[in-house]
């Protein structure tokens, strides 16, 4: 009877391990940059602002980007997560739209990137003087980052801003990252087996079945 119980427990362990391996993992790349200091344009005093109209200088872009793994090396893909503070503005998946791509080589190095994070109402606004036409955008191209504050979205595709214009109502700043590409990911964490809900259910059923088999065998031997 113990042999049967051992087989059941072994099957449960295999199911738990398979469930743990199936869970998606991510790699996080930390972004560090020099302070933004170039190309700031002062806005007009009567500008139709969303938040601040001035792109702050002296604040370096910092934060992180994440990708799902496993991945296909050197293939354009989107970020699975990000949190980037640029010029005092913070861009996350909850308040901004991602457009563009990143590429990672076989060694896990982020070796190419060109993407834009846009926050603000992307609507069919009437023109540059309409506050609903203004957006904030952070652009990351290679080892450079660009911030456009209160820019005018000149071209739209659904809920995505495809083109931006900086004018007397806008502020713009740029920064050069202090660490050139490629960005190396941290060592992958040691996998710690965890029980998913389905694995817990299956484990409980298998153990209950094993107990029932043992009870039945004891009855037959009495």
Layout of strands and helices, then pairs:
Elements: H1 2-22, E1 25-31, E2 62-69, E3 81-86, E4 89-91, E5 97-104, E6 110-119, E7 134-141, E8 144-157, E9 160-165, E10 171-176, H2 197-221
Antiparallel strand pairs: 1-2, 2-3, 3-4, 5-6, 6-7, 7-8, 8-9, 8-10
Helix pairs in contact: 1-2
Architecture overview:
It is a single chain. This protein is an alpha+beta fold. It contains two helices and ten strands; from the N terminus they run αββββββββββα. The chain has helices at residues 2-22, 197-221, and strands spanning 25-31, 62-69, 81-86, 89-91, 97-104, 110-119, 134-141, 144-157, 160-165, 171-176. The strands form two sheets. Strands 5, 6, 7, 8, 9 and 10 form a six-stranded antiparallel β-sheet that branches. Strands 1-2-3-4 form a four-stranded antiparallel β-sheet, with no helix packed on it. α1 packs antiparallel against α2. The relative contact order is 0.22.
Instruction: Name the overall outline.
Output: elongated
How big is the Rg?
A: 26 Å
Helix content: 10-25%
Helix and strand run: HEEEEEEEEEEH
Broad structural category: alpha+beta
Q: Please tell me the total number of domains.
A: 2
Largest sheet: 6 strands, antiparallel
Q: How much β-strand is present in the residues? A: 25-35%
The number of helical runs is 2
Number of strands: 10
Mean pLDDT: 75
Distance between the termini: 14 Å
